[in-house]
Amino acid sequence: MDRKRSRSKYSAYFDRDGEMGLCRLCPSKIPWSKSGGTNCIRLHLATKHPVEMNEFKLLEEARAKMSRPSVEDFNNSTIENSLSSIYVKEENVDLWRENSEESNEKYPAKNPSYKHTDQDQLVFETILGDRWPVENVEGEFFRRLLRKLRPGFELKSVEHYVNLVLPSFRSSLESRILTDLKFAGKISLVFDYGSTGISGLDCVSVMAHWTNSATMEPKSALLEFKTFRNPAEIGPQFLNSAISKFQISRQNQIVGVINENASTADEIPILPNFEGILDKIPRILYTNHWNLLAKQKSILLEYRRLQNLHGSNPYYAHFLNIEFSESDLSSESLQRPEFMSWTDHWGLLYFLLDTQISQVLSNFCATTKQANCPELTPDELLISKFMYSILMEIKSARNSIRNQSYPTASVIIPTLRVLLHKLEGLEVSGNLSDTTSFIKSQVISDLQNVSTICQNNEILKIATFFDPRFRDRYFFESHKEKIIATYREFADKNFENKLSIKEEKPNQMDLSSFDLFLQSQGPSKPTEVPGANLEKEIAEYLQEEPNSQLNPIDYWIFNQSKLPILKTLAAQFSAIPASANSKSRKIYEDGDKIFSMKNMDSIKEDFGFCSANSEVDGVF
Length: 620
Fold this sequence. Notes:
Elements (H helix, E strand, L loop, with lengths): L13 E4 L2 E4 L5 E3 L7 H10 L1 H18 L3 H6 L2 H6 L33 H12 L10 H10 L8 H25 L4 E12 L2 E11 L6 E11 L7 H10 L8 E5 L11 E2 L2 H12 L4 H21 L20 H5 L6 H13 L2 H12 L9 H22 L12 H13 L8 H23 L2 H8 L14 H15 L5 E2 L11 H8 L6 E2 L5 H10 L8 H7 L5 H10 L10 H11 L6 H16 L4
Parallel strand pairs: 4-7, 7-8
Antiparallel strand pairs: 1-2, 2-3, 4-5, 5-6, 9-10
GO cellular component, one term: nucleus
Main location: nucleus
Subcellular location: Nucleus
């Protein structure tokens, strides 16, 4: 197989035009012989563009180091780093060297001492914000456009942004996160598994959530993201390394972790995953009706197939005009029911029942005289409608609560109680009352067990108590006395010692006539600051009726002077998410969009990490 000739290492700064080099940084033309002489272009770079020359030297140092690894480097290297040590220092070999003719892989060198510039920052934020393929920075037509729009602004090479800017940018983000976490109060963690969509390659992430105590707004950061092929690579040590890396105190800072897939240290409480709780309900619905689920899916898949096949035919347009996007219900979910969420099941029944796809498909098959058209029997239709009514109650209860940023843990206990109340009132009648009554009783029994577990979770109860949308009204028994007993010492230590402010005696020479007059009237009364009282604040807080449509952030900012203790405590628990964020796959996909080269997962991980943190940090 013929190998493509690699670009010169000077291609980031010069375009070759015959025996001349066209400088990308200025209009100069410099002699550049094809036989290999580079003294002229190197001298031009050093004298006219010293900043870029310094950058070039850093790249050369990185390449030289990679071509001559030390014994320590060799012993500590991973497989990927070992492969990347194949660099050679030659005139016509670029920093990107093809290592394999069959895989066409490239292994970039890195230099940890490089600090990215403001221009690097601007370009990199654009790449991350738009999930823009990094290779586009070398697109000739884009460069031409950029030169015309902004003369003098030049994009660097791909290797510059991958080898130098990427590690520097990630390092700066990690430093910023480390600083934020130092001043954070309580922190909750989310440990999330996901599939990359590539066979045998999965991914995992650790997110941190906390509250800005001044503004009461939730904050979050991606602490770590990793792809893996062997599940043994991911265990408690992965979470523990992220905690240690960002110097998070287990005893004083971590509230708990949402983690259904991996074990953690005993001292970290496990928080419930609300979406995971709701996802179990459809499995209960279909426990004895898996054949019905298979038929429901076959109807929708057959409709999609016919729509793709005949949808553009005007003769069939009135049959196949029901619109839905892939995001409404993915084909991947339909093919693998074990991954279907409760919203996927709701979507399936919505299309079958509310949009009448089942009836439309039956009419289409009758018109076109197609045999073996999947169709629900009258009994199956009744059972499907009852299942749909249960999922509609879930959707209604879940969506009735307004959330400014994302659903927080405080919604779990109230939503379960409301949902149980609504399901208990669900009517069961008709020829299949025995079947539907059994389905209903199974769902209610499971939700009652889960609700009891959540009612016994101290962290959930505290988070719910300090949410002004719910307060103390959704517990089986009041949580007021427990709150007072738990936090009285905290309140006494931090608030009730501020009883008076001593006034300093002013210098008599500085007093005006007005000051002397007041002094002649006798001593003033000491300025008193009423001591904050936990019991008093709680009593006043519970006098107000909860309102599910309140904005908790606005409430605590508005009442911070009236309820200073409760506002301080609420800030510790208000950012706990209700569910795992399920962002691991998206993080990988974003990294893959930016850097799509195969078998370079560590670089995709870095791009995904930077993109996720730049987004949540508001860089864009």
